[in-house]
Amino acid sequence: MSTRKKFFLAVTLAYIAFLIFPLFTTFSGLSISIVSIIAVATLIILYPQALKSKATPWLLAYLAAFYILISWRGHVVVNMGAVTGIQQLFIEMGFILPSYMIMSILLYLKDERLNRIIVLASLAMFLISFIYLVPLLSEYRTILRGKDNHLITKSANISIVGLPTYTLMHAYVYIIPPILYAFKIFTGKLKWLSLFVLLLFLYLIYATYTTTILIVAVLCIITSLIYRSRNTSSTIISLSLAFFTLFFINQTSVLNTVLNKMDEIYQGTAVSGKVSVFQNYLETEQFQGASIDGRDNAHHISWNNFFKNPLFGGGDAGNHSVFVDRLGTGGLFLFVPYIFLLITIARIHLKEYKSRSEERRVGKEC
């Protein structure tokens, strides 16, 4: 491996470590935004040619639109709390650019060994971070919830540092599909190791008490059980059985029993409110509840601002959806480059995946 690649690997893993271990941010005094900007500057110096990507024009267009709106209105409402002005642009750049640069460089280098090292090192960092989190969870069950963390800290007269951010907790669920895949294809000790890692991640996801990632994790597991890449008939049969099972539990008291048990387990957390909303829907066929009403109000604010000025937005948003908020605060002027940036990145990855799959297929045939 060349010196430049080793330096790229060191910078990438250091950035990932700051993301996965909030303790680094706490004890170093460096905000993640500062770390991100340093990482981006270093990566651009290392591989400026990696920016020659079809997604880069959309990235620049989005950041330019963001800057213009800040210069015009003084702020952009994209869930950054009380931060306003040019500082918002730096936070947004710090959030987007490191991942974009790492992705672009990896695609430019086409080095599978480098990919594997970053993936395995990131997974190892997650597992090491859990060594700190799991004992805390055994003592304080709801420590990962922001509001509950404050109450625990106050009542126990302690200061708890190094807890994952809300965004980082959502990232846990992205690890589930590859671990499920590893569990399905590996044999022997590797299969049992995959199962252990899977259960550990599922425990941490459960402990976040975050409805979205709980649902996504369950859907990932169901999909992995149903899908058979080489047997369409088996997939269809499994899917039919899954739908029949759902229909059966909906027509009996089983579903209510499960929901009551979930409400008991998640009592006092945000999930409990969602469970109550679903129970209410089964009884009245209407979605009602504080959680649903709050989301509706947030989206209503964003959509109202969008329709006031579809081109440039109304300047405000409900702060609940990365997509609808950008429509509300910046209209199509901000939303179009943002969504095309994501679409272009997805297309680049899909093209790369197909290319590598074809190379492997040809290699096996030869």
List segments where confidence is low: pLDDT < 50 over at least 5 consecutive residues: none
The proportion of residues forming helix, as a percent range, comes to over 70%
Order of helices and strands: HHHHHHHHHHHHHHHH
General shape: globular
* Strands, total number: 0
The helix/strand class is mainly alpha
Proportion of residues in extended strands: under 5%
**Mean of pLDDT:** 82
Q: Span between N and C termini?
A: 27 Å
* Number of separate helices: 16
Rg computed from alpha carbons, rounded to a whole number of angstroms: 23 Å
Largest sheet: none
Structure overview:
- With 366 residues, the chain is mostly helical.
- The chain has helices at residues 3-20, 22-28, 32-46, 56-73, 86-109, 112-139, 146-156, 166-171, 176-185, 188-208, 211-226, 232-251, 254-265, 270-284, 290-308, 322-365.
- The mean pLDDT is 82.
